[in-house]
């Protein structure tokens, strides 16, 4: 990283400040975390923190965008893969969402906690609804193609599938193997718990 790209005092760049902010927002809640709290956590004065970031909401927006951008990129990658049928596409979307969650766990955890109290949160909720719509459409496509059960409501199925994925933020720690976790969740979601001969 060049000296021009690195703003603020030595030892802290925007990414390191963002990582600490996400951890504080998750631990204390966004509303309950002040810029003073963040400055103390970083060992800076309150005024010095503004050499790194313009505002607390900017940090929230950056954190949320990290999670949403990764989710959208994962779905875009699945959509661009022309050799998958509708069922494989849905399976790949579920697997990809698990990978994103594991690789961006703190940011995804924060995303799932936003309630629409700030402009950044309202924008995030709009983007989440768009992602939910894309996933529900994949469920509809897979059901229509006979790859999954067609007798269940696609939106409810989508919410249950991705609710299972999202619930991982409550218990998953950063030390899990991404591939094993993604394979296990995908197998469970599509093949169930019943042992097949």
TrEMBL record:
Residue ranges annotated for the HTH tetR-type domain, each copy included: 11-71
Transcription regulation as UniProt keyword: yes
DNA-binding region: 34-53
Keyword annotations: DNA-binding, Transcription, Transcription regulation
GO MF annotations, alphabetized: DNA-binding transcription factor activity; transcription cis-regulatory region binding
Xref: InterPro entries: Homeodomain-like_sf, HTH-type_TetR-like_transc_reg, HTH_TetR, KstR2_TetR_C, Tet_transcr_reg_TetR-rel_C_sf
Pfam family, one: TetR_N
SUPFAM superfamilies: Homeodomain-like, Tetracyclin repressor-like, C-terminal domain
PANTHER family the record matches: HTH-TYPE TRANSCRIPTIONAL REGULATOR BETI (PTHR30055:SF234), HTH-TYPE TRANSCRIPTIONAL REGULATOR RUTR (PTHR30055)
Protein name: TetR/AcrR family transcriptional regulator
Source organism of the structure: Nocardioides glacieisoli
């Amino acid at each position: 990283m060049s000296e021009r790209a690195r703003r603020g005092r030595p030892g802290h760049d925007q990414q390191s400040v963002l990582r600490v902010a996400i951890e504080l927002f998750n631990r204390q809640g966004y509303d309950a975390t002040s810029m003073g709290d963040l400055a103390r956590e970083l060992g800076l004065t309150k005024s010095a923190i503004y050499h790194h970031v313009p505002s607390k909401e900017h940090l929230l927006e950056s954190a949320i965008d990290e999670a949403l951008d990764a989710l959208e990129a994962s779905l875009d990658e699945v959509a661009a893969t022309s050799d998958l049928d509708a069922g494989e596409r849905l399976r790949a979307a579920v697997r990809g969402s698990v990978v994103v969650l594991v690789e961006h766990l703190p940011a995804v955890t924060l995303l799932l906690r936003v309630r629409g109290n700030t402009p950044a949160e309202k924008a995030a909720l709009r983007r989440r609804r768009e992602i939910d719509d894309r996933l529900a459409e994949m469920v509809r496509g897979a059901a229509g193609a006979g790859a999954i059960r067609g007798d269940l409501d696609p939106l409810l199925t989508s919410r249950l599938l991705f609710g299972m994925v999202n619930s991982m933020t409550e218990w998953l720690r950063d030390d899990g193997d991404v591939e094993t976790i993604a394979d296990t969740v995908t197998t469970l979601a599509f093949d169930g718990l019943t042992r097949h001969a």
